[in-house]
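Support request from a user on the community tier.

User writes: "When I paste my structure tokens into the form, the page sometimes reloads and wipes my input. The last time it worked, I copied everything first. Here is what I submitted, just in case something in the input itself triggers the reload:"
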């Protein structure tokens, strides 16, 4: 089977970095047509810089990288330096990139790529706020029917919120964009906190990354060393959840994941629950299902895949 064509839309972020590295290490499974950056974990200039740093770390410097939207559609930008550090990639000491951004805007690249490739052959993989994706769908409604699938990290139901009591960070940063995406009619697969909080980097799993002895393995171990302090203190967990790599792992090994096809709506009005993903897990409404909401994963299989693939770089 030919590798799946994907565009990674991202706001790196240490866990974004691992998701990108997993994709770049898996050319037999995914063909990364390009990486688009968005403001989220840190402002756009840093997410764009970090995407280039990650590609150079991997040795894959032929992937085009485009900078996208620098703010949400209808509100001020909220960032997460309290989790990811002032650079977004705190932990390892990585050199500034020499790889240049492509000319042009990420949204134009998304639109042009979807119009150029055969319908139903490109999957969008958002790892951050959905601003770029929603802007592309609003500007070019014809692309919706050309998207094979959207596999995204965002939202929560049983795990409620990680930036407010009811909202997950990516959706909260731009709930209006998320609302547009979830109402697009595109086949959507969601990696919410409900599953990503089960992808925990325990000490033994992080030791396995470090034991690879490669620049990539050591850098990934140092990234998780840095950002796990926040989650371990917050949740009392044994390690940090690797949120975004769940997206890439699903593309490679969907058998590692289980979930339900349900209705998911985005709260865009309430100050109390802004950005909440209202997931009808129990089917108590008559609202039509619009997303596959993942709830569980094989953690050992996930980390075995991740360690083996990172060892290739």
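"...and here is what came back when it finally went through:"
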């Amino acid at each position: 089977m030919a590798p799946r064509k994907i565009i990674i839309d991202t706001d790196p972020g240490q866990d974004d970095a691992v998701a990108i590295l997993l994709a770049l290490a898996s050319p037999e499974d995914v063909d990364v047509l390009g990486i688009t950056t968005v403001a989220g974990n840190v402002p756009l200039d840093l997410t764009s810089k970090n995407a280039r740093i990650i590609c150079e770390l991997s040795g894959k410097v032929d992937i085009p990288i485009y900078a996208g939207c620098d703010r949400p559609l209808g509100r001020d930008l909220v960032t997460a330096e309290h989790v990811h550090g002032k650079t977004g990639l705190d932990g390892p000491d990585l050199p500034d990139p020499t790889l240049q951004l492509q000319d042009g805007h990420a949204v134009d690249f998304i639109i042009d790529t979807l119009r150029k490739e055969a319908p139903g052959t490109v999957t969008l993989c958002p790892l951050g706020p959905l601003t770029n994706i929603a802007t592309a769908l609003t500007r070019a409604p014809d692309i919706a029917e050309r998207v094979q699938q959207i596999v995204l990290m965002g939202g929560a139901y049983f795990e409620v919120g990680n930036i407010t009591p009811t909202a997950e960070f990516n959706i909260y940063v731009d709930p209006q964009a998320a609302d547009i995406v979830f109402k697009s009619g595109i086949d959507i697969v969601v990696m919410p906190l409900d599953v990503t909080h089960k992808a925990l980097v325990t000490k033994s799993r992080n030791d396995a990354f470090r034991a690879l002895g490669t620049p990539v393995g050591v850098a990934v171990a140092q990234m998780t060393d840095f950002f796990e302090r926040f989650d371990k203190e917050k949740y009392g967990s044994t390690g940090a959840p690797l949120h975004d790599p769940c997206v890439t792992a699903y593309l490679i090994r969907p058998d590692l994941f289980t979930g339900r096809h349900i209705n998911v709506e985005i709260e865009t009005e309430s100050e109390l629950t802004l950005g909440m993903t209202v997931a009808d897990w129990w089917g108590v409404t008559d609202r039509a299902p619009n997303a596959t909401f993942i709830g569980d994963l094989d953690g050992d299989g996930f980390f075995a895949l991740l360690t083996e693939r990172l060892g290739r770089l």
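Agent notes: The reload is a front-end session timeout and is unrelated to the input. The mean pLDDT is 94. The CA atoms of residues 185 and 286 lie 17 Å apart. Escalated to web team.
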